[in-house]
Fold this sequence. Notes:
Distance between the termini: 33 Å
Structural class: mainly alpha
Helix content: 55-70%
Shape: globular
Radius of gyration: 18 Å
Strand order of the largest sheet: 1-2
Largest sheet: 2 strands, antiparallel
Oligomer: single chain
Amino acid sequence: MGNPITIIKNGILNENPTFKQVIGMCPTLAVTSSAINGIGMGLSTAAVLICSNLFISILRKVIPDTVRIPCFIVVIATFVTIIQFLLQAYLPDLNASLGLYIPLIVVNCLILARAESFASKNSPIDSIFDGIGMGLGFTIALGVIGLVREFIGAGTLFGATVLPEAFPRTLLFVMAPGAFFTLGCLMALLNYFSNKKKA
């Protein structure tokens, strides 16, 4: 068994899905127009990731190698359906704002990549911690992008107005191009500080 702290830290910092590996970009760019949407999508993805990692790890010796990808997708789709039903029942507003992107978690390359590269080769406990680390890394990244876009584009944080009306809003940030611009700037900042730390 690996060190749980190291596995979790790896998912949040060293192999962050958004800022380091640049995978799972569809929800990253599409739903981060607000912090609540970003965190909601991140937590939904994290829940699916943790559960699918656990079950794929448990079944790794039973699943034939020739059909492993279809089997992984069936497991992932099962948990996505459960999460979608829970959101519809208990958080209908969040479910409505995330819309089609909840079912699309099934084909999120982050979840399939972790199933293939980690869960299918490691113990269930390690796979749970990998899911927690990668899920937290993804949630933090989406939350930060959503915070920046919402603050600059709408002058709000978590829906509450924080900038006075006189302060100009940059509506570009809550539109699609703002997602690319915000992601690029945040990645550049992280790479700058990461390289500075190594030097």
